[in-house]
Amino acid sequence: MRKNKALDHKCPACMAPIHFNPTLEKWKCEYCESEFTLEELQKFNNASSEKNNEGGKGDDTAYDSYRCSDCGAEIIADENTAATFCLYCGNTAILKNKLSGKFAPTKVIPFKKVKEDAVLAFKGLQKGRPLLPKDFVSIKNIEKITGLYIPFWLFDVNADGDVEAIGKRITNWRVGDTHYTKTDTYNLVRSGSMKYHLIPVDGSKRFDDAIMNTIEPFNYNELVTYNHAYLSGFLAEKYDFESKDAFEIAKKRALQSTMDEVKKTMNRYTGVVVKKNNLDIKEEKCDYALLPVWMVNVKYNGKYYLFAMNGQTGEFIGDMPISKGKVLAYSIAIFIICMLLFIGISYLIYIGGAA
User: Fold this and answer.
1) Does the pLDDT value for residue 68 go beyond 80?
2) Exposed/middle/buried for 3, CB within 10 Å: 0-12, 13-18, 19+?
3) Would you list the domain boundaries of the chain?
């Protein structure tokens, strides 16, 4: 097992560990309460510059063992972990070699939501969900809340080409007692190009794509140049899904969106059938970015539930249990209401018939 040194971040004022504060959008020391901007940290060499942010080109070796720079303890991480915590002193350990070379991100969206926001979102699940067990949203059920940067590929693509389809127009009219139907068939041709900016594709195989897709979209106007200082206080993953494979997913999304736009121009016709699709999707640019997500692990009645919250927008999703008792109660209530309505209607019909 090869050993390597982990990076951390120190407060320039008191040298205590310092973390990124999403609310302030600055780095704040919990000990002396000093606050610093990214530019100020860079002055103290406590954040990566544009040069050292790139890391060692060609260094793709994944290390398993790291030495905490704060207390000297050994940190063990799997090959996809890019930032973690020391189990002994709690300091953030940024495994820079995991974010260097081809694994060096170009962009990042910093966290804007804090852990308390994730807790409030979890507690708010009860609202509008009558079948959810009442005690499910108790804070005591939360096993762990983790702020995590997940790797994403962001593609700029160009769609160009033409589509040929058959469409119909049906006209109906009546003369006297005779009904006429006329069907006109048209050959429809559409051509042109469309550009798509920042199509996201999850770069981690271990996270459920359905969850990642549901908490989108992110506001990509808030993308900033990557700096490892943003990782302080959070976990991070490096990608294990190659960009060439991710592009195939982005390509399908762009193709589907382009076809949807093309078909909108044919909405005056019925029974539209595409005969030829000569659309070509080409990659123009690809950015490797880290996007913020709060993961909430919940244990309820011996079963684990996973929730995810967009660390920028606050979108919160996850699987939820259903109370069997509430389902039975609602079923009985609906049955009784239906029976009362049936009896009432039957009585009115009977009274009306007798009269």
Assistant:
1) no
2) exposed
3) 148-318, 323-355
